[in-house]
Amino acid sequence: MLAAQQWVNATYEGVAEGYVRCTPDGSTGWETVLSLTQGLQHELGISPTVRNFGPGTFSKLEARGGIRPSETNANLVSIINYALWCKGYRGASPASQWTATTTDSMNELIGDAGLASAATISNIPTRLLVQFIKALMRMDQFRRVSGGTEEIRKFQQHLNQVYVYGEDITTMDLAPCDGVYSRDVQQAVMKALQFEIGIPRSEIGGYFGSNTKAKLKEQPALGVGSKGNLVHLFTALCVFNSPVVDGEEETTTRIRSDYIDLTEIFVRAFQRFSQITVTGKSDFDTWAQLLVSTGNEYRTTTASDQAAPLTLARARALSDAGIQIVGRYLDEHLDPGDEHYLGKALTSAELSDIIRGGLSVFPIFQWNGTVKANFTYDKGFEQGSVAEDRAREFGFGQGTCIYFAVDFDATGADMDAVLDYFRGVRAALGRTNRYTYGVYGSRNVCINVTHRVGATWSFVSGLSWGFSGNLGYPLPANWSFNQIRNGTFSYGSGSFGEAWEIDRNVWRRFSDRGTSVLNPTGSPAQDFIGLIERLTTAALEYDAGIDPVKLVCMFFRKDKYNSSSWRVLLESGVDEGWIAHLAEQGLTLAARRDFTDPVTGSPIGTEHLMATLEMCLKYPSTTDLVTAGDIGGWAGDLASFYEQWREAKEQYPNPMLYAQDYLGRRDTVSKFANVDWVQDADAFNIMRLMRAEELSLPRAIARYYGTDSPAAGDRVCQRRYSLFYGERFDSDSTKTQVLARNMLLGENSAVEAIGGSWYLSGGFGLGSEDRPGNIDPAKLSSFVLAYAWELEERADAEKGI
Fold first, then answer.
1. What pLDDT sits at residue 388?
2. Can you tell me where the transmembrane regions are (predicted)?
């Protein structure tokens, strides 16, 4: 590589007009291949040279027949050999000669692209040869890379076989064959689809325009029994948009040319997740949702956001038109005298009018969100602080989600800066934990901020369909709003009406509810607090001789936590008479399986929470001894997560990397997901409240999930992780690791815990070689360290760290 860089600089710097020197550092990358591209252009007589292999370069190279083994221009041969090295194939030495090594590597590249049966370097058609030379001048990969799958790689090769070579679609480049869904692959699929639905070859451009939409609407919907190329493309798009994560369910599918029952199951799950009509077939809305970030931009929307202030009349007009919730900006960083001032900041009077007009509100914060320079940790901390101050001034209740905007096309190179900004936001809001944070941005931005910094909700800028972050990425698992159409909204006519610009958003059911009450005095968890009081009263009426806490917990755990292992450890099953007694009063679990977390506004599952609480109360855990109380909560979930990791050990030999993708994440299905972290910490903390302050269960629940009245003070749950970390582990990472290791190995554990850890986790399904005591001790240490780090990070976030 160093030789390539030195040669291209020495040969063309100061010779080829427009040439840009590449850094001679011995590393491959865009900088080097673009310099080689400029060298190629110079040899073709193009001046000035540019850092792009465009139509002009393609035509010139095609007109001269490409570059073949018989080539006599030593510089052109050198460019091919050095480009092969850049691509990861062997080039000849000396590079100025086309040798058997060059031929073998070119044939290997042709084979990796899926065309070994169609051509070799000795008989390849000129246009296809130029396609390969163009591919050499890019960073596209034709071997499977880390994170790529063989299924996707075979599909990429299929695109090259059928559409680039077989059908010779002249507007279509070779698809990379790296096993990864990307922007380039998305473009290739779009062009293949356009060909299949009858778009003229000369009009195939890879854009989801009006002609493509019209042709797609004419297509019969694919369903079970359908076969052929359209099914192949459709199922590939399904795979690219999978898995579909919805709560504890994860649905995947496979690329195939026949539409089977399992395909329909996935399509139905995808349609539900995307909030489009559930048909199980490839109707237009489903094609659109699979292809572009807006989906069908004319489908029904119930949310909007806008820079223009809303009056009472405007709010009522939006409500009458079916809009239920609106996004407005908490602040504007520019002074009114600035030429770019928009006047977009919310006011208290406007907020009151919006709510009086029948709408809810979700707050947005954006200062300089259109430029990368805004995205630093310090700016995130500053802006998070301002956002909290404004939200308090307006009267937004605790647990409100504030969306911080990334309003530019942030690429992979920009992502570290974006993540640092959100770490600053998290630290600022964590000082009080009054508000949670969401992210506004492309799909890729939302996915990264959610996965790596823990955003509660994602507001997707689907309207920016040309952003690279919206091409080749699925809809985030935690999406709450998807912005799909911009336009003018109007009502009335003449002096009795008005018009202004809005963005229309799809509002996901059961996601962020926004704010419809200012300065609330009740807790979002009030229904659950009241239910605990009602159940406690009913328990005392049912049998005063039985601990009412036991009966209340039994009500919640009767369906999911009533296995033989739970019955043995809790020394009781479920009192069916008690359940029947409650049913007579209309008290069943239906519609009571979760409640709203006052901290994040997300659902908390009542069944896991109360089953864990009962185990914690029976087996209190505050010492260096692992007890069944631990097993019923964090330790049992960690044991289950250990089992899940060992089942994925081939893909994830390193437990730290597995934990990074699955431990406590909001956007993946995991045996120790974010909801489990919340429930485990809350159950332990409620147990400690009941014991330390001698509170009854109803009083402890009310104290923990609290109210918003000033006299009540902070809710205890606002410090759930720091309390849990402090009370159970003494805020000590080493102790956390020791307890986790002891639990997994059955050391320094109560007898109930030794038997219970594998009982409750289902760990008996593991082979002996995967048991904690039989794996590499270094890997076991990494596994427990990952848990300790995640817990410490969550506790630190509540301290503004």
1. 97
2. none
